[in-house]
Design a protein that fits this description.
The structure is a homodimer. Helix content of chain A is 22%, strand content 32%. By secondary structure, chain A is of the alpha+beta class.
């Protein structure tokens, strides 16, 4: 997904650019059964994630993606088109919920909103920004709800924040 | 990792088997740079996850794994050797924190403890179990702290829980 000619360069954002209520919408990502089962074979090898026939007899009544695949695709969308934060998206932790299962054929995108901005007292070059996101499918159902704290640099330096 | 001869079959656990304070320890998983960068290229393509040289100039002072890779390996350890729950590990949501970065050469394992067990009032065949886990590296540093709610079947049926 590296830059195509049609894709405009995005400005990266610093702490001063992020205010409560600022909203971001990512691009989309379409899921197919092969992607879902390949991830599950590697990281979450349970019948409802790897075997279409076996999955029919489970709680899910069919093949569903690992929630960690939904989380990984959400991250991909945020990195590529969702949150253009200077120095990258550095998550410290947060809350996750998966109200609806993700299935083959789903087309996901992420809607995000800044809900808190706190400059660091001890480190003048950075702050913490809380972002609430919803990963939605093509029916606008929420497949993942995330509230995460991110480390954001205060101003431009060559590498975003000073190491250490 | 499907059953080798040396690997004893594990009993699967139902709601009645899970009580507050019950503890589980997973096997281990060793990480190398290739695994870390392969995951990041696919899901979290940021310099500090994909490029050893570029990573030196960042906050992390070197290559670190995507936190979603740490989460995925934690899930793998739970599925393979951590939490033998009947019907599989079905997560509803929870909290995550990543207090220490995961780096090439780290050997991870997961320590888990049941912190709450709530039979469902409306669905007599299931309940919700809260599990607090720490994913630790070879120096016993916590790289991921997780509190997650899991759906657990109350008793044996052919497929764990009734669909729907």
């Amino acid at each position: 997904m590296a830059g195509t000619m049609a894709e405009p360069a995005r400005d990266v954002l610093y702490l001063k650019d992020l205010y409560v209520g600022r909203h971001f919408t990512s691009g989309t990502h379409a899921l197919d059964e092969q992607q879902i089962t390949a991830f599950a074979h590697e990281f979450d090898p349970q019948p409802f994630h790897i075997d279409r026939e076996a999955a029919k007899g489970t709680l899910f009544r069919g093949l569903v993606a690992s929630v960690w695949y939904t989380a990984a695709i959400t991250m991909l969308l945020q990195v590529e088109s969702g949150l253009p934060i200077a120095g990258g998206i550095v998550g410290l932790g947060g809350e996750l919920a998966w109200p609806t299962a993700t299935r083959p054929g789903d087309v996901l995108h992420v809607e995000s909103e800044v809900t808190d901005v706190v400059p660091s007292r001890s480190r003048p070059d950075r702050g913490t920004v809380t972002v609430r996101s919803e990963t939605r499918n093509q029916r606008d159902e929420v497949v993942q709800r995330t509230t995460v704290k991110l480390l954001v640099p205060r101003r431009s330096t060559t590498d975003g924040m000073q190491a250490g």
